[in-house]
From TrEMBL:
InterPro entries: C-N_Hydrolase, C-N_Hydrolase_sf, Nit1/2_C-N_Hydrolase. Pfam families: CN_hydrolase. Residues 1-254 form the CN hydrolase domain. PROSITE patterns: CN_HYDROLASE. This is Amidohydrolase.
Amino acid sequence: MKAALLQLNVGDDPAANLVQTSALLGAAVDAGAQFVLSPEVTNCISTRRDRQQEVLQDEASDITLAGLRAQAAARGIWLLIGSLAVKTDDADGRFANRQFLIGPDGDIRARYDKIHMFDVQIGEGETYRESAGYRPGTRAVVADMPGFRLGMATCYDMRFGHLSRALVQAGAQVLVYPSAFSPVTGAAHWHSLLRARAIESGAWVLAPAQTGTHPATSGSQRSTYGHSLVVDPWGDVVVDAGAEPGFSVFDLDISKVTDARRRIPALENAREFDGP
Ligand SMILES: O=C(O)CNC(=O)[C@H](CS)NC(=O)CCC(=O)C(=O)O
């Protein structure tokens, strides 16, 4: 199956972001992609909670979800929306950071709410507290596509190897990590973490990413690392999209999962143990 990662530079205006995403999606499909993946928070990046409250909706009214579902149906493709920030019934008014798998009929086939919240102090004044704005998910999700099973995880989730292990033990052959990674931690950890997840799992790792300095009509601008990555089940980097927005088409060959797991049967060799 031919697949494509979209690398986006979204701002805090969902309508403008949808125009950007739609154009790249169309170009990727024209280039032959039957499965397209977009990054974390495809609908909006903002450092301001009040701006998010103003421009974002719940799932039923989200313009990005409606627009992209219609395009998936019109073009007959599978679409993984890396995530949307959507309003929930959370008592504290927090959003969900929710992935959607859309089928070629435009129907929602699976949803996943990001489990691990990026609550960190990287240093030099750079602090993130994702759990202030987002309600974490509590359930790991796999979903079936034609010929393979997808394991869904988002961005910071890639640092928690027991989540990817649970997904591959549930049959996942393709792990997705749509992201909006910080530039500092991206330079330090991005490639190593994603290659490790692919190698220890014998699985494809697909990580569409946000990139660059994100335009903001209000509040401070945020920057992300880019470098959307495809790692094959042996750990080789097949796509590194660099810093510019765009799309990258690649061949998602599931037989490579079987090959990698035959050479290193780590899933079969795994053992239960006592202690420490
Ligand atoms: O804030 C939003 O609107 C959406 N959420 C994100 O962009 C999240 C939390 S700030 N980003 C990450 O998890 C980056 C993780 C990362 O950079 C690392 O693990 O090093």
